[in-house]
Amino acid sequence: MPVVFLKDRSFLRVTGAEAEPFLHNLITTDLASLGADEVRPGALLTPQGKILFDFMISRDGPGFLLETDTEQRDGLLKRLTMYRLRAPVDFAVGDTEGVTVAWGDNAAEGPKDSRFAKAGIALTRTPGHHGDDAEALYEALRIANGIAVSGPDFALQDAFPHDVLLDLNGGLGFRKGCYVGQEVVSRMQHRGTARRRVVIVTGATDLPATGTELTAGGKPIGTLGSTEGANGLAIVRIDRAGEAIAAGTPILVAGHEVAVALPVWSGLSFPTQTDEASA
Fold first, then answer.
1. How deeply is 81 buried, as exposed, middle or buried, from its count of CB atoms within 10 A (0-12, 13-18, 19+)?
2. Residue 278 pLDDT
3. Which of 36, 99, 250, 262 has the fewest CB atoms lying closer than 10 Å?
């Protein structure tokens, strides 16, 4: 299995006497249960519960290491600094750019990505350039397992954590205290109102560009995100997709029929008109 370098990733270190309570009370990830051998997804939300920044987080000695898209790094640092007030917490930009991911027989020692672990894949993330530049191999693996990322799959400030499966892949803690946007997220969880979800899209030929609409019966049900040949991801209204599947109505992308499937590891199923999405 390959060892792949992802160049557009950057790091922030969070240290200090109150680093853990500071982050725990601010982001979606439950840090109290975060082990030294894992790296989990997380997000800093708007007060309305939408994803403002997304990242991966792991323990780094007594502090924490946040891995994020390079374009988000400075904005995330600025926002964390704004929330710090007088807390004894320090931030530092990592001196390493890019991250190396490895899986299968090549998985390195170190924290394993909980998103892939849910799908039964041991994938490690190591700061720095230690592998090949074959990002397409990683993208294909990510798409095949229904793992969405900001940018190609959803726009920041436009998606709720449930939309991108953070409630199922370790990115949302439901037993922790309050954090920014927590009230909205908890309401969606307890009322079962999450209807937009990530699906894996498969076509007979190469899929069109990111941003192309998915339709069923002439009505939009979602938008295409990442693509790799005939496979891709989309965030769709699973209630509308479920109705189309039950009625035998084709789901189309740019006029071509595609198949949509919820990631097996998620435990979700397409609801019908009278069903609730199950998990």
1. exposed
2. 43
3. 36
